[in-house]
Design brief:
288 residues; mainly alpha; 14 helices; 73% helix
């Protein structure tokens, strides 16, 4: 993969499928115009995320050079200049806002702008403040889901927002937990907040966020079932793969993995099977 493309981190684009969550749950993805708007939202967040990755690598170039794996990033390795990194960090966010504007929703554009502001300020400020760094990253996932909802103008229930919030916090905290265990005594030199987190504290946050996500999802699923008035218990059945997926990911973390969540999801066949099972069950519940 060319160095410039590696800086954009296309593997991370998988996170942006969250924009399909609200439209999918609302049952509008079978409408061509709504599907097109959702795809535009996905492209917008991919461009926005890649732009912020360029700035992140520019600002963290010295810390990355001290990291066992991040030192291979193109900017840290000298394959991409700092000047080019800054240029791409300006161009891509502008294109992201333009792509979202094509959906015709100013609220969706505002969500992308907020995402850019939060993510860029994270690289400069929030990543150095314990707890706020977790919240800042988790909010990025919530904004992705909100962007998809506003792009097609469908409502998000309070329980849907809570599922996204707690689920995001679980993934983000799991990443910190895995990094702390993997880097050991050298963790502070790579990420300053890891010096303030103990494994016990991160385990506590993992337990709270996992429980919050599962309870919120159960309430959302049963509430949606009542509104849909379906005779088949598909919404209720979707709780099973969701619960299993959280427990499986918790096991992966306990085994010392999870510092790179995208690699876990791309390599763990059980998680992939559970994810596919959930998509099929929930999809049948919404579209049948």
């Amino acid at each position: 993969m060319p160095p410039l493309l590696r800086c954009a981190r296309p593997r991370q684009w998988a996170k942006n499928v969250l924009v399909f969550a609200a439209p999918g749950a609302a049952g509008v993805l079978d409408e061509p115009d709504q599907l097109l708007k959702t795809v535009l939202a996905f492209v917008s967040f991919c461009l926005a995320a890649s732009g912020t990755y360029f700035w992140n690598d520019v600002l963290d170039v010295e810390a990355d050079r001290a990291h066992p794996t991040k030192s291979r990033r193109p900017i840290a390795a000298g394959e991409v200049s700092l000047g080019l990194g800054r240029t791409m960090g300006v161009i891509l966010p502008v294109l992201a806002l333009g792509a979202m504007a094509l959906t015709g929703s100013w609220k969706a554009v505002l969500v992308v702008a907020t995402y850019l502001a939060v993510t860029l300020s994270y690289s400069a400020v929030w990543k150095h403040i314990a707890v706020l760094d977790l919240i800042a990253i988790a909010s990025g996932f919530v904004l992705r889901a909100a962007g998809g909802a506003y792009a097609v103008d469908v409502p998000m229930s309070s329980w849907f927002v809570l599922v996204t919030t707690f689920g995001s916090l679980f993934i983000v905290t799991g990443k910190r937990y895995a990094e702390a265990r993997e880097l050991g005594d050298g963790a502070v030199s790579v990420r300053s907040t890891l010096g303030e987190y103990s494994e016990r504290y991160l385990s506590f946050v993992l337990a709270v966020s996992c429980g919050g996500a599962l309870v919120s999802y159960c309430v959302w699923a049963f509430e949606t079932k009542e509104i849909a008035a379906s005779d088949l218990p598909l919404y209720e059945l979707s709780v099973v793969p969701m619960l299993a997926a959280f427990l499986r990911y918790a096991l992966v973390l306990d085994q010392g993995h999870g510092a790179a969540p995208e690699e876990v999801f791309s390599n763990d066949r059980v998680l992939q099977l559970l994810g596919l099972s959930w998509v099929i069950i929930f999809g049948l519940a919404v579209y049948t």
